[in-house]
Amino acid sequence: MDTVGFVGLGVMGSRMVKRLLDAGRRVVGYNRTKAKAQWLLDLGMEWADSPRAVAEAADVVFTMVTDTKALQAVTEGPDGLLAGLGPGKVYVDMSTVSPAASRALAEKVRQRGARMLDAPVSGSVVTLEEGRLSIMVGGDREAFERVRPILQDIGPVVTHVGGNGQAVLMKVATNLSLAVQMLAFSEGLLLAERGGIPRDTAVHVLLHSVIASPC
Question: Residue 157 belongs to what domain range?
Answer without folding.
Answer: 4-170
